[in-house]
Design brief:
The structure holds 2 protein chains of 2 kinds. By secondary structure, chain A is mainly beta. Chain A has strands at 3-6, 10-12, 18-25, 33-39, 46-52, 58-60, 68-73, 78-83, 92-100, 107-111, 115-119. In chain A, the strands form 2 sheets. In chain A, strands 2, 4, 5, 6, 9, 10 and 11 form a 7-stranded mixed β-sheet that branches. Chain A has a 4-stranded antiparallel β-sheet with strand order 1-3-8-7, with no helix packed on it. In chain A, strand 4 and strand 5 (46-52) form a beta hairpin. The radius of gyration of chain A is 14 Å and the shape is globular. The N and C termini of chain A lie far apart (40 Å). Chain B is mostly beta strands. Chain B is built from no helices and 11 strands. In chain B, the strands form 2 sheets. In chain B, strands 2, 4, 5, 6, 9, 10 and 11 form a 7-stranded mixed β-sheet that branches. In chain B, strands 1-3-8-7 form a 4-stranded antiparallel β-sheet, with no helix packed on it. In chain B, strand 9 and strand 10 form a beta hairpin. The radius of gyration of chain B is 13 Å and the shape is globular. The N and C termini of chain B lie far apart (34 Å). The chains are: A mainly beta, B mainly beta. Chain A binds chain B through residues 35, 37, 44-47, 50, 59, 61-62, 95, 101, 104-109, 111-114, and chain B through 31-32, 34, 36, 43-46, 49-50, 53, 55, 87, 89, 91, 94-101.
Chain lengths: 121, 106
């Protein structure tokens, strides 16, 4: 079965960087894009960006462009999200999700378990 | 950016009830609209995509309808495991955006 397993919780100081991993299994990694979505405590869902595992093409939410990097390692079936210059309002649970139907009706059909990133001095 | 507005933000219902949640977009999505369910402390789960297509494995009591700017998610005969928060999401253009959520409570 499809599984996305994320790295563990992180605590960072303002101005630092965080890198979250997302290891995929149960499907051919290169045939789906990976999206990153976050959820601040008690809040809704915010799409951060998506990366095509096949060709590395990326799309970003404009508010994070410049601070966000998304990469993949196809040999390890793992996607990575790095957020730099962290602020307190970056405190959130970060999810990776498999993006199905990229050429038809895009949707997030499988999700990782989430990684809590806490930014605090 | 496309704004997604859900209503109500919360509702109280009983097991066996029929529940309808609505989602309005600030511009036409045709049918590029998805619905997710989120249990407390869990990742979201895809229920409906392309406005009305049921995701594999999702019970048939869930259904979606609508096109353009107005959409709805209906749960017929609410079950105990359906008490959760529901989000709509547009996928016609980036940035992909979500509605604010509807919490279905007992």
């Amino acid at each position: 079965q499809v599984q996305l397993v994320q790295s563990g919780a992180e605590v960072k100081k303002p101005g630092a960087s965080v890198k979250v991993s997302c290891k995929a299994s149960g499907y051919t990694f290169t045939t789906y894009a990976i999206a990153w979505v976050r959820q601040a405590p008690g809040q809704g869902l915010e799409w951060l960006g998506s990366i095509s595992v096949y060709n590395g093409h990326t799309k970003f939410a404009q508010k994070l462009q410049g601070r966000l990097s998304m990469t993949t390692d196809t040999s390890a079936s793992t996607a990575y999200m790095e957020l730099r210059s962290l602020r307190s309002d970056d405190t959130a649970v970060y999810y990776c999700a498999r993006e199905a139907g990229s050429l038809t009706y895009p949707r997030f059909d499988n999700w990782g378990q989430g990684t809590l990133v806490t930014v605090s001095s | 950016d496309i704004q997604m507005t859900q209503s109500p933000s919360s509702l109280s219902a009983s097991v066996g009830d029929r529940v309808t949640i609505t989602c309005r977009a600030s511009q036409s999505l045709t049918t590029y609209l998805n619905w997710y369910q989120q249990q407390p402390g869990k990742a979201p789960k895809l229920l409906i995509y392309a406005a009305s297509s049921l995701q594999t494995g999702v019970p048939s009591r869930f259904s979606g309808s609508g096109s353009g700017t107005d959409f709805s998610l209906t749960i017929t005969s609410l079950q105990p495991e359906d008490f959760a928060t529901y989000f709509c999401q547009q996928s016609i253009t980036t940035p992909l955006t979500f509605g604010g959520g509807t919490k279905v409570e007992i």
